[in-house]
Design a protein that fits this description.
By secondary structure, the chain is an alpha+beta fold. The chain is built from ten helices and seven strands.
């Protein structure tokens, strides 16, 4: 009998359904030692689940390749480097399945991400709002849809565009490699296109650090929420550097739980390329802004 929890069964079924029929039936033969005959994909999946001792054993099977696990985790909103090794993905999946569902859903599947930028539900009342939770939800939502535009990841692109920004939105983009460069854009369309180009054309993957030392959020008396986050920049198998990104968020309408982006400040600092296998042993970048310093953005 299967030793998987209900949540593990649901997740493994979704992963197994991503395999080709040839891979799935071959895996069924391996797991059941050819003791079970099936006539459909559904029966094959059920047999594999039933004959697996645990979720870890199943995910480590060679026929369950890393790409399907990575795609599953990404669709659940789990932030993970694009070229994480399979054992890291297995560990992340097991941790995700063991994590109790929070009272505020922060890992929405891609299909459930609201196109009107609904990233936080709190009854339309700002009193008692946990802005750190808002910031974490927003970052998971933002980087999930932005990174999905990177064709090298093999993901289905989620809905990206100027609708997520205010019409007069601004982007200030500073990047330092051998020398410092600065770009500035105004207008929802231009801001959206420049950010899109980073991942779609330059094939970058932005991996935010959502721990307490990598994410800070403050709120002005006039309704502007400032979210600042640090993270690492990747391309293919290499970590290229670190970034700090500051967002200004304003409600889409009074009494509405939808938020739109008023401004974005993005600073990227390049470094000698480090293979992701080496980079994972290094600590995630820490945000250099103090909460009091973020109040400068109120103006």
């Amino acid at each position: 009998m299967s030793g998987l929890s209900e949540k593990e069964k649901e997740g493994c079924k979704e992963i197994l359904n991503s395999l080709s029929n040839t891979e799935l039936f071959a895996l069924k033969d391996t797991v059941t030692n050819r003791m079970i005959t099936v006539e459909s994909v559904k029966e094959a999946v059920q047999a594999i689940i039933s004959y697996s001792q645990c979720a870890e054993e199943l995910l480590k099977r060679k026929k369950v390749h890393r790409e399907v696990i990575y795609t599953y985790l990404t669709n659940q909103g789990v932030i993970i480097p694009a070229n994480a090794e399979k054992h890291v993905l297995v560990k992340k999946a097991l941790e995700y399945w063991k994590t109790p569902k929070p009272s505020v859903e922060v890992r929405k599947p891609a299909a459930e991400v609201k196109t009107d930028n609904e990233v936080h539900k709190e009854g339309g009342n700002s009193k008692g709002c946990d802005y750190q939770v808002l910031g974490e939800e927003f970052c998971k939502w933002f980087y999930q849809i932005l990174n999905s535009q990177n064709p090298s990841l093999g993901l289905v692109p989620q809905e990206w565009g100027p609708q997520h920004f205010w019409e007069d939105a601004k982007l200030k983009f500073c990047y330092s490699t051998s020398e410092q460069q600065f770009e500035e854009y105004q207008g929802a369309e231009l801001v959206s296109l420049r950010l899109l180009a980073l991942v779609r054309d330059e094939l970058l993957f932005l991996n935010p650090n959502l721990d307490a030392n990598g994410l800070k959020c403050v709120s002005s008396p006039h309704g502007l929420v400032v979210v600042a986050v640090a993270g690492t920049i990747h391309r293919n198998t290499a970590c290229l550097g670190i970034f700090e990104q500051v967002f200004g968020l304003i409600r889409a309408a009074i009494g509405n739980s939808s938020w739109k982006i008023k401004f974005v400040n993005l600073n990227i600092t390049g470094q000698n390329a480090v293979e992701d296998g080496e980079a994972k042993h290094q600590p995630l970048p820490t945000l250099t802004y103090q909460s009091s310093e973020l109040q400068v953005f109120y103006g």
